[in-house]
Amino acid sequence: MSAESVSDDAVSAEPVTATSESLAPVSDGPLADPDPDPDADAVEDEDEDEDAPWTVAVCPVTPELAARIAGMVELDWEDPELTEKAVLDAGWRSTGAHYGDFNEKAYTPAGHLVYGDDRLAMPFAYEYWIHPDGVWTEDFWADQPGWHSLVDPPAGTFDAQLDAVADLFTELLGPPDHDVTHRRRPGFDYHWRYRIWRRGDNVLVVAPGLDGFSYSQFEHAFVQIRPLPADAPLPPAAELPDFLTW
């Protein structure tokens, strides 16, 4: 199949449905009193941003791990016994009949948390900042086995992680069948890019998404295998965030 490249700048994204990874939806409550000086708040926000550099946390995806995942791409992910066996055969640790503390279903030897009942969803990078008054007051991911944090990294570090993992799957599976971008949040000059490979009745996706652990305020990068019938069209770009939630 020839690769499809789509840009959907004109489409505004729909809100992302809360996932099993989410702790709570984002809620912007009304202020108790009108703000008499909005410029003062803007300066305050800038000061906070200066005190809170961006952090990118990474659990590397090795060529060996990518090959393991690529080997699972045509499994029936709606068959829990089959996929449980595949996970164990890969040397991953399963949580069995129950979820882990963060709703995960398995762990790779490298330290990735793997999610999903009818799919494989594995984040490998997070982008966020730490601030005493923010969502993250401590660097949780820096303390997790197999993860490391890059504090105030060069611009583009998070996207570079996505590109590197997509390159691994391109070496294994060939070019993506779909390469779709769209402007995720109107008013912000950046895009989300989805690299998607179709195999049988499944898709393998490398993409960014909203991080439920941060109440969807920050982003994570993930690889995912989920069902999509071979004769079904790919959902429109604006629907992909919902399509890929778990």
Report on the architecture of this protein.
There is one protein chain. With 246 residues, this protein is α+β, with helices and mostly antiparallel strands. Helices cover 22% and strands 25% of the residues. The chain has five helices and eleven strands. It has helices at 38-51, 63-70, 80-89, 157-173, 240-243; strands spanning 4-7, 54-58, 93-94, 106-107, 113-114, 120-129, 148-151, 178-183, 191-199, 202-210, 219-227. The strands form two sheets. It has an eight-stranded mixed beta sheet, with helices on one face. A hairpin with a 7-residue loop joins strand 8 (178-183) and strand 9. Helix 2 (63-70) crosses helix 4 (157-173). The longest helix has 17 residues, at 157-173. The chain is globular and about 50 Å long. The protein starts with a strand and ends with a helix. Residues 8-49 have low confidence and may be disordered.
